[in-house]
TrEMBL record:
<keyword id="KW-0133">Cell shape</keyword>
<dbReference type="GO" id="GO:0005886">
    <property type="term" value="C:plasma membrane"/>
</dbReference>
<feature type="transmembrane region" description="Helical">
    <location>
        <begin position="51"/>
        <end position="68"/>
    </location>
</feature>
<dbReference type="GO" id="GO:0008360">
    <property type="term" value="P:regulation of cell shape"/>
</dbReference>
<dbReference type="InterPro" id="IPR007227">
    <property type="entry name" value="Cell_shape_determining_MreD"/>
</dbReference>
<keyword id="KW-1133">Transmembrane helix</keyword>
<feature type="transmembrane region" description="Helical">
    <location>
        <begin position="146"/>
        <end position="164"/>
    </location>
</feature>
<keyword id="KW-0812">Transmembrane</keyword>
<comment type="similarity">
    <text>Belongs to the MreD family.</text>
</comment>
<keyword id="KW-0472">Membrane</keyword>
<feature type="transmembrane region" description="Helical">
    <location>
        <begin position="109"/>
        <end position="126"/>
    </location>
</feature>
<feature type="transmembrane region" description="Helical">
    <location>
        <begin position="74"/>
        <end position="97"/>
    </location>
</feature>
<feature type="transmembrane region" description="Helical">
    <location>
        <begin position="12"/>
        <end position="44"/>
    </location>
</feature>
<protein>
    <submittedName>
        <fullName>Rod shape-determining protein MreD</fullName>
    </submittedName>
</protein>
<keyword id="KW-1003">Cell membrane</keyword>
Length: 168
């Protein structure tokens, strides 16, 4: 097993544990819940096969669902995020993505925040829409999406910056 696979397995397990042990128990004001497990999907190696990312994202979401007793909404939202990831990477990083030369540890902070923000909003919109599954509660869905997204984006960017080695 190479070091990239080992790092990804460790990241998968660590983020899953942080999510189910700490973050699932944060329910600030009824609307703010961080979902940091999606960092795994954001940081998954770009050159890996896309089907592997979709499958591993499904597994990650399914595990969060099993611990959260949430009936598959995390699995669905995680797969949607993994599916949208190439578009997000292209819109946030442009030519760096075209040339497959993105290194998250050395990208500029603006592109990183754009990438994390777009992905988080997509994930949370799908997650809370499926969780509520009632169009008459659209304001509640939007409120949960907005506040949880802000908190998740801040935590995700901080975690990525703290744990990347050679940040500018």
């Amino acid at each position: 097993m190479n070091s990239v696979a080992g790092i990804n397995i460790a990241r998968f397990i660590l983020l899953l544990l942080l999510q189910v042990v700490i973050c699932n128990h944060i329910d600030f004001l009824g609307y703010i819940n961080p979902y940091i497990y999606i960092i795994f999907i954001f940081l998954f190696p770009i050159r890996e096969d896309r089907l592997v990312l979709l499958f591993v994202s499904f597994l990650l979401g399914l595990m969060v669902d099993m611990f959260s007793d949430s009936g598959g909404v995390h699995a669905a939202a995680a797969v949607c995020l993994a599916y949208a990831r190439p578009i997000l990477l292209k819109s946030a990083f442009g030519m760096l993505y075209e040339h497959q030369s993105i290194k998250f540890s050395s990208t500029d902070i603006g592109s990183l925040i754009t990438y994390i923000s777009l992905g988080t909003i997509i994930h949370h919109t799908i997650l809370f829409s499926l969780e509520t599954f009632n169009i008459s509660n659209i304001l509640s869905i939007l409120k949960k999406t907005l506040f949880s997204s802000i908190f998740t984006i801040i935590l995700s960017v901080l975690i990525i910056i703290l744990f990347s080695r050679n940040r500018k």
